[in-house]
Design a protein that fits this description.
nine-stranded mixed β-sheet, 13 strands
Length: about 220
């Protein structure tokens, strides 16, 4: 029996993530919400969701001694980051006056500018909240069966700025084009919430069930 760990470090209600994964899981795969290091490292695949602020997220990971555990998991098996689970993979976030993050992907996290406008000149609200398109910038197994520019559900005020465009797997337009998905080795991470993104989101989660890492 294969095992997918959804990491619970006290940052938000993860029930919808678990339910979505259970919905698309093969018969030989179980999904578990886990807190401990041993459970995470026993998993065949790891899902790292999250919401809230980067500083609080990193503090929770330090308190639970999960930083080295997540680093090992992300470099040894398929690893899916969702929302804050994408942002804290970077080197540093500007949120809360500056917060050092996990440093698994080179780059930073920046806040959307307040003065951004859409194509009609209307001021855009921060946070970016609601449905928006994700443009796939490179082929990846997790995009299999998902139409180009499919719409996903977003809720965030900060976005990642990778140091290298080579890790960008998808972009989204919100006043400016920003990296909404990144991929590096065993890591795929996305800013939107696939568990709330109807058919495209469920397809991405289903693809993750079969992905063995890499492109």
């Amino acid at each position: 029996m294969k095992f997918i760990a959804v990491v619970d470090y006290g940052m938000g209600n993860l029930r919808s993530v678990v339910k979505a994964l259970e919905h698309v899981a093969p018969a030989d795969t179980r999904v578990r919400l886990v807190e401990g290091a041993d459970d995470i490292l026993e998993a065949d695949r790891v899902v790292f969701p999250g919401q809230g602020a980067a500083r609080d997220c990193m503090a929770a990971l330090r308190d639970r001694k999960l930083i080295p555990v997540l680093t090992e998991a992300a470099t040894t098996r398929p690893f899916l980051g969702i929302c804050m689970g994408l942002q804290v993979l970077m080197d540093r976030s500007d949120e809360n006056g500056g917060t050092d993050c996990l440093g698994l992907i080179a780059g930073g996290v920046r806040r959307f500018e307040d003065h951004q406008v859409d194509a009609q000149g209307q001021r855009l609200k921060i946070p970016h909240m609601g449905w928006n398109q994700v443009h796939q910038t490179r082929a990846h197994p997790l995009w299999e069966g998902i139409d180009q520019d499919s719409r996903f559900y977003f809720v965030h005020s900060y976005h990642v700025v990778p140091a290298s465009y080579q890790v960008v797997a998808g972009t989204t337009q919100y006043g400016l084009p920003f990296a909404s998905a990144v991929a590096q080795d065993h890591i795929f991470a996305i800013q939107c919430h696939p568990e709330k993104s109807a058919a495209p989101g469920l397809t991405l989660l289903k693809n993750f069930m079969h992905w063995t890492g890499g492109v």
